[in-house]
TrEMBL record:
Source organism, top-level taxon: Bacteria
Similarity remark: Belongs to the alpha-acetolactate decarboxylase family.
Pathway field: Polyol metabolism; (R,R)-butane-2,3-diol biosynthesis; (R,R)-butane-2,3-diol from pyruvate: step 2/3
Coiled coil: none
EC number(s) on file: 4.1.1.5
Protein name: Alpha-acetolactate decarboxylase
TM region(s), chain numbering: none
Alphabetized Gene3D superfamilies for the sequence: Hypothetical protein, similar to alpha- acetolactate decarboxylase, domain 2
Pfam families hit by this protein: AAL_decarboxy
Keyword terms, alphabetized: Acetoin biosynthesis, Decarboxylase, Lyase
One record GO biological process: acetoin biosynthetic process
EC main group: lyase
UniProt source species: Polaribacter glomeratus
Length: 180
């Protein structure tokens, strides 16, 4: 498992590393596809929509390819007492611009009905073939030689941490998203 640090560096995590939030799936490909060229992220979404068929399931993806321009986002490590919500962290996230880079997109599609417990639509992360660049895929242009696959997922399990910190954290929307 790879971790993209806030400074853009990539490390291999050890088995005892903990993470605040994770999406995971056992991955075996139901179907594979090859796409010669896509103009940008939106174009890839449209191409994948044709591949998956129904948009009422979850899907996991693994897609290899070369990206002429790729914009990756990171999230800096937070320190206690974790007062900033995503409304502050995401607009101020570190951004890494890569050019002519080959690597792998991994990610998920969630149906619109997923609501607030995940991100509806496509959400991809990237790790380069040389394992030196990684992050959240914000945008890309001119991707070529894409070969990928996906697995359809019909079961969704949501696990919460049973810890004192989680017991008492304020998850009300007014706290998380209106803080400046
Ligand atoms: Zn992400």
């Amino acid at each position: 498992m790879y971790e993209a640090l806030g400074n853009g560096q990539v490390i291999v995590v050890n088995d005892t590393t903990k993470i605040a939030y994770a999406n995971a799936a056992f991955y075996t490909e139901d179907k594979t596809f090859d796409i010669n060229k896509v103009e940008n992220y939106n174009h890839l979404r449209a191409q994948i929509n044709e591949q998956i068929g129904s948009r009422n399931y979850f899907y996991a993806f693994q897609i290899h390819g070369t990206f002429n321009k790729l914009k990756l986002g990171g999230v800096p490590k937070q320190e206690k007492p974790y007062t900033e919500g995503l409304d502050v962290l995401i607009p101020n996230r570190p951004v890494f611009d890569r050019e002519n880079i080959t690597g792998t997109l991994v990610g998920f599609y969630c149906p619109d009905f997923i609501g607030k417990i995940n991100v509806a639509g496509y959400h991809f992360h990237f790790v380069s073939a040389d394992k030196k660049s990684a992050g959240h895929v914000m945008e890309f242009t001119d991707a070529s030689n894409l070969s990928g696959g996906f697995k359809r997922i019909a079961k969704y399990q949501f696990d919460l941490p049973e810890t004192p910190a989680y017991d008492s954290v304020n998850l009300e929307k007014s706290f998380q998203y209106n803080k400046k």
